[in-house]
Amino acid sequence: MPKLKIVTVTVRSTKTMLEPEANCFLVGTAHESVLIDAGYDLQTSAEAVERAVRQHGLATPTRILFTHAHPDHAPGAKHLRHWHATLQYHPLEETEVQKALSLPESELHHQSVRLSHEATITIDSHPLIALHTPGHTRGHLCFWLPEQKILFSGDNVLGKGTTWIGGPEGNIRDYLQSLEQLQQLPIARIAPGHGPWVDEAPRERIAYLHRHRLEREAQVLSLLHAQPRRQATAATLAEAIYRDVPAAVLPFARLTVEAHLQKLEEDGKVRRLPGGRYEAI
Questions:
Q1: Residues 197-226: what's their mean pLDDT?
Q2: How does residue 16 score in pLDDT terms, banded at 50, 70 and 90?
Q3: Does the pLDDT value for residue 246 go beyond 90?
Q4: Which of 4, 26, 110, 219 is such that its CA lies 20 to 30 A from the CA of 84?
Q5: Top-confidence residue, 15 or 157
């Protein structure tokens, strides 16, 4: 049984201010391979992937697996339609995949397979396991390669920095639970959707991200207690927490704060008031 090759293809876009680079991964052999994520809606993304297939002597991928359908991960598949590859994703991501690929519903159904939690994808006799890890999006998937103990983490774990969690798709509670699930795996390496591979202490990296989210939650609650009663909004909290980020990024920061406030409200620690204001209980 030939050993799987894993090839990182980093694709780039000048049209986004948040993540100008994203990672796609070719996994396979000369007989069979898959592509995990397809990058931006740019011909250059597809060209980079196809060049890597040739350079590394891999079979043309017969399946494209999506961790999720955000613009830096899915729409590059539009430029790879000549592969006639099967599209595979979690059912909760289907609507967003359809939008990302601009496909009619009937055509998407004809070309796709929906992956449930712990579904096994076989690549030239090697198992790759889909893990439903919501939080960044409702239908986010990670992919686990047990033979090599490699986790393809999508946007749930990044090579640098922390994962953006914001509405309407993001959910802090789901994200924390997904990180807890991933911590149970005997991970040797993490292949993230952005940034370098995590080769040193990957489980500690996951633990850090979990801790960071809880610390941010505590910070939001502390600020609510400190601000004048009934005056705090997600926007004012974001401005207080993210003092050093560019103004253009603040709307995304506000959405993250709103996600934390949603969890705190569900936990009975804050109360939502008219006009988008909040108070601590």
A1: 97
A2: low
A3: no
A4: 4
A5: 157
65 and 89 in contact (C-beta within 8 Å)? yes
Q: Return d(Cα 44, Cα 47) in angstroms, integer.
A: 5
Q: Provide CB contacts within 8 A for 237, sequence distance 6+.
A: 220, 223, 224, 227, 257, 261, 278
- Residues 267-281, mean pLDDT to the nearest whole number: 94
E-state strands within the chain: 5-12, 21-28, 33-36, 63-65, 86-89, 112-114, 120-123, 126-132, 141-145, 150-154, 189-192, 232-233, 270-273, 277-280
pLDDT (tens digit, 9 = 90+) per residue, 121-144?
Answer: 999 999 999 999 999 999 999 999
In contact, 132 and 139? CB cutoff 8 Å = yes
Cβ(224)–Cβ(278) below 8 Å: yes
CATH assignment, 5-201: 3.60.15.10
Residue ranges of the chain that CATH labels 3.60.15.10: 5-201
Q: What CATH number is given for 213-280 in this structure?
A: 1.10.10.10
**Complete edge-to-edge strand list for the sheet that includes strand 189-192:** 120-123, 126-132, 141-145, 150-154, 189-192
Report the amino acid identity of residue 197: W
